[in-house]
Amino acid sequence: MAHPDRPIAFVLASTNHGSMIVNRHDYRMDGADRGIGVGWQLLSHSSFDPKEVAIALALLDKRRKYFGNGVVAIDGGANIGVHTVEWARHMAGWGSVVAFEAQEFVFYALAGNIALNNCLNARARFAALGETTGDIAIPQPNYLQPASFGSLELRAREGNEDIGQPVSYAAEKMATVPLVNLDAMNIGRLDLLKLDIEGMEIEALRGARETLQRHKPALLVEVIKSDEAAIGELLAQLGYRSHRVGMNIVATHESDPTQVALKHHGKRVDLTIG
């Protein structure tokens, strides 16, 4: 019996982060030899944002040093799970990860990568992070056509980023997925919160005010699509000291012995974590 043609999007790749399920179409070319997308970085260089991964691992190490085993990290906007897998492998025996991803097929790859790399101290949740708990309607890209899927903005706004293919925010073409705010989860401990959720970072932080006040985790928050001033003001109100590092804010609470500083070496700026 003949089988119908079935184009392949997701493939298994051996990367510096372990074996990873990757969408081979996950890219938007930004020049002749530079692409944007987690998949493009992995398939072209075997790694995804190694400096950002290193910052997160350093923060986790310091939290363990100062607060002991049982470290808990949340990966908000986990994509296919590079951070999740790196953190979980690094913290085997002394920490755990909860990863959130709102795009259904990307979530499947995330869950598969957790299982494939035997990260039994990681959990994946199919949900978006926001200010409230309920549902959110999100657009549905075509995963068989090239696009930077991690750049997809769940909410329509003026000037949505071009991900490499047209994106429709028409109501009839949206899918409904769970929306979660961290305060409603009543987390018992939190050491690191990463938010890379394409413009919804301020909403997620507002929905985590009680959690941040209670646990005072270190923060790694992407700000290129958000109101950076509003995020900085909110964090300052909560007692955080923030530093802009590339596309992210790295912040620790003023009471946290895990302190972050920037050192300038001419045109180069290095982050130190102590």
From TrEMBL:
Keywords: Methyltransferase, Transferase
Domain Methyltransferase FkbM: 75-241
A GO BP entry: methylation
Domain of life: Bacteria
One annotated GO molecular function: methyltransferase activity
InterPro entries hit by this protein: FkbM_mtfrase (IPR006342), SAM-dependent_MTase (IPR052514), SAM-dependent_MTases_sf (IPR029063)
Protein name listed in UniProt: FkbM family methyltransferase
Lineage of source species: Bacteria, Pseudomonadati, Pseudomonadota, Betaproteobacteria, Burkholderiales
